[in-house]
């Protein structure tokens, strides 16, 4: 993390997503009264953190201070299928409150499947629902969209992000392929580079793959409209992730929670070392400068 020179890959999409949602329905508008903000597939809480840091005046319009604002209305419900992710967010909340940052008291974090949120949230209770880089990873993405629509109140805003393409996901595929090959006792001697789709296969318990319908503006619009969303807007933007060394990227990529989804129990003996070796060989067709890497 210390080697990062720019924003993490999901940060700019989060900023754009939240700003667009706020432009459509300001967090301090009358329509948001007594409603919740839902952060689906929250992970460690990037969307929740961004809301609290950048939109405090709108979330707490009286004084901007949780302890002094008895009429505050913000309530952020963050959910994730991963118990460790929820534990991490809960720990962050407790630390922030202990430091005197009482605004974090508005956050509740719950373990829940994005495809069925009925255990934690009722119908039509949310003013805003956010899903950052999560829907395309669900077994049934449309079910996740349907749940977002179910919990939205009248006039509410749902916002999500996906990738048209991403080199860091390509790197995860390379690492997962190498781990699986190692688990099977195979050795890949060829250098693996971008575009070698036939080489990038794995036998883990899941995969990190962007479905075709989630990798284009037209596809995303169709998915949302088909479950009943109206006035759908799809905005494309570019996100960059700058590093000074390939090693720094590799260490972070192999530590992503998504790697466990892709690899499962297939690391095998020496699998992590093999994954690190092959991922380090990755040659970016966009930024091949030695000693410097920039992932889209």
What report would you give on this structure?
- Keywords: Methyltransferase, Transferase.
- InterPro entries: Methyltransf_11, SAM-dependent_MTases_sf.
- GO terms for molecular function: S-adenosylmethionine-dependent methyltransferase activity.
- Residues 38-159 form the Methyltransferase type domain.
- Helix content is 36%, strand content 13%.
- The chain has 296 residues and is α/β, with parallel strands linked by helices.
- Among the domains are: 10-61 and 72-161, Rossmann fold (3-Layer(aba) Sandwich); 167-183 and 202-207 and 241-281.
- Strand 2 (76-80), helix 4 and strand 3 (107-111) form a beta-alpha-beta unit.
- It starts with 10 loop residues before the first helix and ends with a strand.
Order of helices and strands: HEHHEHEEHEHHEHHHE
Question: How much helix is in the residues?
Answer: 25-40%
Shape: globular
Compute the gyration radius: what is it?
A: 20 Å
- Assembly classification: single chain
Unreliable spans = 1-6, 66-70, 186-206, 287-296
- At the first level of CATH, the class of the domain at 10-61 and 72-161 is Alpha Beta
How is the biggest beta sheet arranged? 5 strands, parallel
Residue-averaged pLDDT: 80
Protein name: Putative methyltransferase family protein
GO molecular function, one term: S-adenosylmethionine-dependent methyltransferase activity
InterPro entries: Methyltransf_11, SAM-dependent_MTases_sf
Domain Methyltransferase type: 38-159
């Amino acid at each position: 993390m210390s080697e990062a020179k720019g924003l993490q890959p999901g940060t700019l999409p989060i900023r754009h997503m939240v700003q667009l949602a706020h432009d459509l329905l300001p967090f301090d508008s009358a329509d948001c009264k007594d409603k919740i903000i839902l952060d689906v597939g929250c992970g460690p809480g990037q969307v929740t953190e961004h809301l609290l840091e950048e939109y405090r005046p709108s979330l707490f319009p009286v004084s901007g201070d949780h302890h002094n604002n008895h009429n505050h209305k913000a309530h952020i419900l963050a959910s994730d299928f991963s118990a460790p992710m929820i534990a991490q967010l809960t720990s962050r909340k407790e630390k922030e409150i202990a430091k005197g940052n009482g605004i974090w008291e508005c956050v509740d974090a719950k373990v829940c499947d994005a495809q069925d949120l009925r255990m934690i949230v009722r119908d039509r209770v949310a003013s805003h629902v956010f899903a950052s880089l999560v829907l395309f990873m669900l077994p049934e993405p449309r079910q996740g969209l349907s749940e977002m629509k179910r919990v939205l109140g009248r006039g509410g805003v749902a916002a999500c992000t996906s990738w048209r393409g991403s080199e860091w996901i390509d790197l995860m595929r390379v690492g997962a392929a190498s781990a699986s090959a190692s688990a099977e006792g195979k050795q890949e001697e060829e250098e693996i580079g971008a575009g070698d789709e036939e080489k990038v296969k794995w036998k883990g318990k899941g995969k990190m793959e962007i479905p075709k319908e989630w990798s284009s503006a037209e596809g995303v619009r169709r998915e949302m409209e088909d479950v009943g969303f109206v006035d759908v807007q799809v905005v494309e933007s570019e996100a960059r992730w700058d590093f000074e060394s390939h090693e720094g990227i590799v260490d972070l990529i192999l530590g992503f929670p998504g790697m466990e989804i892709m690899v499962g129990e297939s690391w095998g003996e020496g699998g992590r070392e093999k994954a690190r070796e092959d991922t380090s060989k990755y040659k970016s067709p966009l930024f091949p400068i030695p000693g410097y890497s920039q992932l889209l």
